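Q: Convert this sequence to structure tokens.
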Amino acid sequence: METVEPPVALTIAGSDCSAGAGLQADLKAFSACGVYGVTAVSALVVEAPGTVQRVEPQMPGVVAEQVRLLSETFPIAAAKTGLLASAKVVKAVQRALTTTAFPVVVDPVAVASTGDSMVGPGFAEALREFITARANLVTPNRAEAEQFLDRSISSSKEATSAADELAQILGCPVLLKGGHFEGEECVDFLAEGNRVEAI
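A:
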């Protein structure tokens, strides 16, 4: 019987020392789905539940080297980005992915759940350029979507229109995550083409 290797996914994200987010959480999710995960560390984050003490972006060249080496060595089926932390890291990742063909999911992490900013100057502009050039799906939460649109989103009706508007602005499908909205049930909003679906 032929042995079937698990699919490989790349996460380009920050390292959360408490393992509740970042590449540690990605690896747990990948493993639970039967996926082998490889990692490019984009930032070191000193945090624990309820507190972020420090965010240290890694050297852009080192981040890019990780991405290039992993892309050349493993049969990567898909990649996702998490906290990229600085405009220089975003640009380095974009360049490193130029010659790759696998789909890329961008989680536009900018603010911790504590409300602390985790990114530097020029980040938003660099991230938008990266998304336009390379993203196949963008997965903002409520706060991140509000930053993109520069307005508040306070209801599921507003979330539906926000997801649709973001998809038009960014030029790719958007999954607006519903975990930060009120209500007993968590509903996400997927905008693709001219359609928004609550899932």
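The mean pLDDT is 91.
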